[in-house]
Amino acid sequence: MLDALAVESGMRVLEIGTGTGCNAALMADVGAQVVSVEIDAEVAAAAQDRPARRGRRPGRGTSAPIAPP
């Protein structure tokens, strides 16, 4: 999937659905600035340590209660 996106250094990427955080980490590894949004608080919390394990600083935005459809 990442090959199809052709993400390059300096690109700004918005990822909807963080999941494990793997795709965001891979895009950051090539130099993209990545913002990833996850609706499930438990999934987001689980992905929170991935950037630190890769030598990056995780960000933390504000959260608002949003009821899933």
UniProtKB/TrEMBL annotation:
Residues 60-69 have a biased composition (Low complexity). One of its GO terms (molecular function) is methyltransferase activity. Keywords: Methyltransferase, Transferase. InterPro entries: SAM-dependent_MTases_sf. Residues 45-69 are annotated as: Disordered. One of its GO terms (biological process) is methylation. The keyword Transferase applies. Coiled coil: none annotated. This is Methyltransferase domain-containing protein.
